[in-house]
Amino acid sequence: xxxxxxxxxxxxxxxxxxxxxxxxxxxxxxxxxxxxxxxxxxxxxxxxxxxxxxxxxxxxxxxxxxxxxxxxxxxxxxxxxxxxxxxxxxxxxxxxxxxxxxxxxxxxxxxxxxxxxxxxxxxxxxxxxxxxxxxxxxxxxxxxxxxxxxxxxxx
Length: 155
What we know:
single chain, alpha+beta, 5-stranded antiparallel beta sheet, 3 helices, 10 strands
């Protein structure tokens, strides 16, 4: 009886074909995943440059921003030499900036930690001082405690 063995052979052949198709698809998916991972290694999670438009569009390194102040749907960005206005909300800007470099110290202010000299507690209030300018911001108590916990000096 040759006929009963043909369906078994056919089933076995179809199973080998199915296994080979799955193996090839798995190889393709693995290659795609490897490509995505390699691409993401070169991807910066946070902004390294901020696009400012003063007549023409240019990119300014993010580390040049000393602090940012809210102005409606705009953010005023202060560098050592200029003030730029960009169309962005504070929450949008906060999510795009590296939290190791920038801190939101008030609902209206983001500061670059590199320019902060310390936190001074005086008369029940906490003040954040900048090294380059004679500027200071009053912090609420919760943010002042967080800033101090992050290693800022207090006076």
